[in-house]
Amino acid sequence: MILKILMLLVFFGVMIGVGLYCRRHATDVNGFVLGGRNVGPWLTAFAYGTSYFSAVIFVGYAGQFGWRYGIASTWIGLGNAFIGSLLAWAVLGRRTRIMTQHLQSATMPEFFGNRFRSKPLKIGASMIVFIFLIPYTASLYNGLSRLFGMAFHLDYTVCIILMAVLTGIYVIAGGYMATAINDFIQGIIMLIGIVAVIGAVLGSQGGFLAALQGLAQVTDESVSTVPGVFNSFFGPDPLNLLGVVILTSLGTWGLPQMVQKFYAIRSEEAIQKGTVISTAFAIVVAGGCYFLGGFGRLYSIDVAAQGYDAIIPAMLSNLPDMLIAVVVVLVLSASMSTLSSLVIASSSTLTIDFLKDNIVKDMDEKKQVLMMRIFVVVFIAISAVIAIIQYKRNVTFIAQLMGVSWGALAGAFLAPFLYGLYWKKTTKAACWVSFLFGSVIMILNMLMRASFPVLLQSPINCGAFAMLAGLILVPVVSYITPKPDRELVENAFACYDKKVAVSQKRSLND
What we know:
Layout lengths: L1 H20 L7 H6 L6 H12 L2 H15 L4 H29 L5 H8 L3 H21 L4 H9 L3 H49 L3 H9 L21 H13 L5 H8 L4 H26 L9 H4 L4 H6 L4 H35 L9 H29 L2 H27 L5 H20 L11 H22 L5 H8 L17
Helix pairs in contact: 1-9, 1-16, 3-9, 3-12, 3-13, 3-16, 4-13, 4-16, 5-11, 5-13, 6-7, 7-16, 7-17, 7-18, 7-19, 8-9, 8-16, 9-13, 9-16, 9-17, 11-20, 12-16, 16-17, 18-19, 18-20, 19-20
């Protein structure tokens, strides 16, 4: 116990120290939200990865999908690495950095407002962010209760308050730069932790081949009558597995807190390095989490009574104390890194896109930074209260709302953001259609799930459908609605045609 407490105290001390050290970077809006657009490849790549993978992935999703699909759940992690990281950086990274700086946009709603010269579009996007990021933020506390209870015998409420206060301190003090540096430290912990845990869990089952053989003996006729299906290449339900891969991988392309990482990156070289680093990080962390979860059925767990969140803690319960301490810090790191990213996205959106020039006129830089710091406190407090209420009273409505948040945000924003970066003919009307379709269909899925087709009753499949439908709706609506103003479009895309000098290793032209 002393070892566990010491590790936590060191961890907390480092996080707060980084926040205080980075205060000088958070004196204006650009510094607080984007780190002055001067963040290098390692910090950006780790910030992207740690914001991507939270305790929800490690405890909830890894346990749930590992139980459902067996070792085939590893495909989810690989999808996260190659679609959610590699392709996202390659397709969005450079263009996002160039156009958002050209349009002087610090948030995703501000990008829509400036790209299409529409204040209502900016306000509409900010409201979607505000509505759906709050329950998403609250979901990050899930999974901590069982692990902290196992390691420290602490009440869940204490865990939530501890995590919320610590995250609030370093985000308020140092803004995005403190978040990025802490994300790097937390990412190192996640990398070491997941590798150590996989090795220990497989070792307890007699090694990798013995664990695979054990998984081949598992049968569950309620899932599949095929023998050995849980250690097969595609698992017992490939179609629903594909839906999970699409939602958790392609979804990052439309999430404000993820895309915002590209706004802050320093240079072309940083984008190239960041792409490789981010992909490698995702392969180890996401691939490792889902790979680990795939062996969950080797452990005696009453999932019907205890829920999917009990699977990973049960797998870890007999590990050595030192390793359990590492796991606790790993899960704290995963949760805090994502929480800090979400509250910065929420507070900056509400301040820059909603309050500034709409409710509060002539809001200068100092007032904006002050308001964002206040909203960081507000959002962390609200999310903590929601998490405590859900835990104490088992409010299923809140749990459902958490489940649709990712699908609603990605379904609303992915298509208009992607087309807005690449296609000159994208219209405001098409953006509105995508906003409404993505958010409304996920709300209806939550409220009227039984009325949906069987395949779309799952919030995961419905979220994947919303994203793919948006990719079709935006060009169709753009073709049948009035064309955007030519001068506006040419001004937005002029940034891509700007001539720059490059070294000869980048070009053979004299």
